Amino acid sequence: MFAKVIAENQKNWSEWVPFITFCYNATKHSATNFPLFFVFTGRLPLWNINFLLPDVGQEQRELRQYTADVVSRLSEASKLVRQHLQAAFESSSKWYNHRNKPWSFQPGDHVRVYYPHRYTGRSPKWQKYYSTEGVVVKRLNDVTYVVSSKNWKTNKVTHVDKLKSVNVFPPVKCDVIDVPYVCC
Question: What pTM does this model have?
Answer without folding.
Answer: 0.46
